[in-house]
Amino acid sequence: MDFLLVLMVLAVVAVVVAWPLYRAARPSPGGPPEVEALEAAKDSKLREIRETELDYRTGKLSEEDWRAQDARLRSEAADLLRELDRAKGKEG
Amino acid sequence: MAILGRACLIIALGLALYGAGASIYGARARKQAWVESGRRAVYAMFGVVAIAFVILIAAFIRSDFSFGVVVDHSSTTTPLFYRATAAWSSQEGSLLLWVFLLSAWSSLILFVLARKGKLREVAPYATAVLCGLGGFFLFCSIFLANPFGTLANPPLEGAGLNPLLRYPSMMIHPPALYSGYTLFTVPFAFGIGALVSGRLDASWITSTRRFALAAWFFLGLGILLGARWSYSELGWGGYWAWDPVENASLMPWLVGTAFLHSAMIQEKRGMLKVWNVSLVLAAGVLAVLGTFLVRSGILDSIHAFGASTLGVPFIVLIAVMALGSIGLVIWRRASLRSEHRLDSLFSREAIFLLNNLVLVGLCFVVFWGTFFPLISEAITGDKAAVGPPWFDRYTVPLALILVLLSGIGPVIAWRRATVSKLARYLAIPLAVGIAVPLLCLALGVGHHLEALLMFGIGAFSLTVVAQEFVRGAGARRAMTGDAPPAALLALVRRNRRRYGGYVVHAGMAVLFIGVAASSTFHNQRDARLSPGQTTKVGGYDVRYVKPTFSVADDHRNTGAIISLGAVLDVSKNGKHVTTLNPSRGYYPDLSQGPVSRFYQGESTSEVGLQAGLRRDLWTAIQPDTTQIDRLAAEADRKFPNATPQLSLFIAGTLAAGYARKPPPATFRVIDSPLVTWIWLGGLIVVAGALIALWPAGLRARRRAPAGYGARVARELGRA
Q: Disulfide check for B619: which of B258, B299, B367, B608 has CB 3.0–4.6 Å away?
């Protein structure tokens, strides 16, 4: 009985593990690593813009400082979007 | 079933080796099919290890004494809940639990990343590392601590679960701790993967951050449950003893805390890459080191449940992990340069950096104190240990700075803070922080500088957090016009990471206030009392009213057949305060004579506790059983073949005799303020971590970046 169960486990494991080697290759989701890195940087930058605004609205930053930081962050985000478009264009 | 269990472990080891090989080959040869096959090997490893794990648990539940490990760690008299969880009290079962959890978390992260198509260059190497770690623990399980070893002649009864472990939270404590340890190996593996593949941007940190947070959460929960067990069950009255095994869990938690803060700087600014990857690798190594300390028995500890057979393989693994990590960081140092510099020392980045230095400093102190016995033995030949006073000397000032920084961090802006704004922002918290210690002095609490400082800094930190919520909700109200509760809820929901973190800070402040008060202002008295006698502790009169006993009345469901205890009356200034009932439970030892077996086995304290927000009154009893032992030995000689019923009757009669003519008993009585704050603070920390961990709804996640993305995109269009 135990022996049969071991054989069953082995058979299932073999099928699960070997399946990708025998079926036709599938395109995997997601873009190239450069795009992924830029997407992560962009999301992080957008989050930073939002957090800086929250810092301003909760009184941690003066309006002057916030506007200066916000402009800089937006410019950095714009650069990232530009790079992202370029990377995606290359990919396409 | 033992054959199937063992076969599953061998198949899992094969899968781990295959998974590592296929993933590396797939990555090097750029053959996606092999990478996917390697990943599926991890899923399969999880499946077969789960089968092995279920077989072992079932053996414990069924009291299948053909399994050697069940004989050694369970018995038919062990209550069902403890039988179901006794597996991880053994060396063999705990290693299997480790590899089960590791394969579960590994499968989860690899599945999530594959579905999203993320970290495709990093993941194969991370898979190989996770498989390598799984393979190591499977090797240990198969060849050094096999849980499926069987006995040719199974006995009718087992030794039973260690009575000290028969405590509900103690059964949850190991899985929580091991979840923390194994979850820390996930960012470790991806850190190695990022270094090997050269993909050192923040995406690997972003993708594994939630796992690092979950590791921190579970490890913290495990530490808290362990402290609670120590306080309620071990009978010495404390919750933390700087024991090597306690320290072993604290070290990766401290480093993990540092990483969770500094990772934000890399995500936002592309800075501290070397530091972050080093912290992640250190947390991974320390997680394995923690397991090693529990399981190897290399350092004396009340929590160490292992023998030393695993010592050499673990040392080799830890050396490979540590040296490999250092080598990889040095190899990739050029790619790990920071993209930016600190804009100002007056910024949240600078505070986070300082907090990191304090946390790593704390970790170093704990590491040095923990391994000092081994270091001193290597140098002098004598195994000298450092005690709690040594740890307190260094950790107390560092903890004070840490709580202070946890108060300053939330109020200071990223990049560059506005000094005037900061001063205005800090005015109320500073006032509260100064007023609280002054108030304590005025109320005559005592002149303990460190404790007063902690009360002040803790109050400062708590006020900062309260102010953050009030201001945040106010800002939200001003923008949306929501009612205050709705504004607060929306604020937290839209900024879970930030406000979950603030709740954690508040919890830590409460916890540290509790630690400072209870460790500085507690009163303890050990007294030997006869019924009617009284001892004084911290202004309370504690009178030993009468002894108690119970036979076969196991209302706490721990398996203790006989217990001897006391009724204590506590009063203050002549007024009754409470009645406490400490007792000591005795677990039978079947290798002893038919009557003395009821008293000669292990015994544990059931403490008498009156817990409150202001103070705890804690008592434990050590009954004098000299007379009972003598009479039981006599009964053994007179009734060598007594039936179990007769044996129990005689043992019960002896207990009743003890209650009729009680000898003096030894009591430990502790009056300790604010201990409950420690558990409350811990619960607040848990709540904060859950808020931060809770995934944002898909709509919210899309909505936030899309709104700003569109605005930035509009600017880009104009540029």
A: B608
Which band of pLDDT confidence, cut at 50, 70 and 90, is reported for residue B719? very low
Angle CA B447–B541–B529, to nearest 5: 120
Most A CBs within 10 Å, among B36, B42, B269, to test the A interface: B36
Q: Which pLDDT band, with edges at 50, 70 and 90, does B310 fall under? A: confident
Which of B99-103, B174-178, B354-358, B434-438 bottoms out in mean pLDDT, i.e. has the lowest?
B174-178
Given an 8 Å threshold on Cβ–Cβ distance, is B412 in contact with A60? Answer: yes
Chain A CB contacts of B36 under 8 Å are 20
CB-based contact B712 A78, cutoff 8 Å: yes
Q: In whole angstroms, give the CA distance from residue A58 to residue A65.
A: 14
Count of beta carbons in the 10 Å neighbourhood of residue B346:
17
Q: Is B477 exposed, middle or buried (0-12, 13-18, 19+ CB in 10 A)?
A: middle
Alpha-carbon distances of B222 from B148, B168, B210, B447, rounded to whole Å: 27, 13, 18, 34
Phi, psi values for residue B270, rounded to 5°:
65, 25
- Are A39 and B201 in contact by the 8 Å Cβ rule? The answer is no
Task: Please give the ipTM for the structure prediction.
Answer: 0.86
Calculate the alpha carbon distances from B344 to B173, B340, B464 in Å.
43, 12, 22
Beta strand pairing call for B562-572 and B583-586 = antiparallel
Cβ separation A82–B7 shorter than 8 A: no
pLDDT one-digit tens code per residue, B608-635: 999 999 999 999 999 999 999 999 999 9
Are B3 and A36 inside 8 Å of each other by CB?
no
- For residue B569, give the 3-state DSSP assignment: strand
Q: Looking at the complex, does the CB of residue A43 fall below 8 Å from at least one CB of chain B? A: yes
Distance of CA B654 to the CA centre of its chain: 42
A41: which 2 tokens? 């940087």
Share of residues in chain B with pLDDT > 70 (%): 94
Tokens of B58: 């079932």
Give B528's strand partners.
B666
Query: In angstroms, rounded to a whole number, what is the distance separating the alpha carbons of residues B577 and B568?
Result: 11
